[in-house]
Amino acid sequence: MVPVLEVPADEKGLFLERPNRFLARVKLSSGEIAEVHVHDPGRLPQILALGNEVLLRRALNLRRRTKWSLLAGKVGSHWVFTNSGYHRRLAEKILRDPVLSPFGPPKALTPEPVTNNGRLDFLLETETGKRIYIEVKGCTLAQGEVALFPDAPTTRGTKHLRELLFLRQQGFQAAVWFLIFRPETTRFEPARAIDPQFAKAFDQALEGGVELVTSKFFYDGHTLFLIL
Prior knowledge:
5-stranded mixed barrel, 3 helices, 2 domains, Trna Endonuclease, Chain: A, domain 1, alpha+beta, 16% helix, CATH 2.40.50.580
């Protein structure tokens, strides 16, 4: 394992409820009930379960309504990182590393490139001259050894896959990159039963030449490690 990004937790608590997609209530170790920002649009069914252990980080913005942000939840014997606000930073650190990057040594990296139908996460130019459009997705759901995405229907995710396929058809290279935060898994599949439209777009993208890339991570409550 290689340490990639430090995201230290400040507090541990027990999950109580999720009143809406952005907010959770957590019982802190002190016994206080706190409102916590949830930075993940998914349902997180295996993580946000009543009484489950969670890790929190204190908000730096003192004017923010919620003083805490959710970082991770306990599943089995390990922490599953759940804060999608760190995905781009994590991905960028890997992409800029000539040894760790799954796309080869970088020459230039453009975040949020404008495309025909919106934006994607990155446009990477390699030292060999390749230009690769990349969309990054975080994966927190698993069944046994199979990592699954999404954990809730995602029209946005389907749109991104169709945009990658369009770019590939225009002659560009394109890739969908799943950051998998379930270290016990051994393979990835689209969650067909949860979102058939995403699964269909996923199959069409791969058949059309969009590259599937997966990277697996372990989180110890302080650091995200890339599992090689």
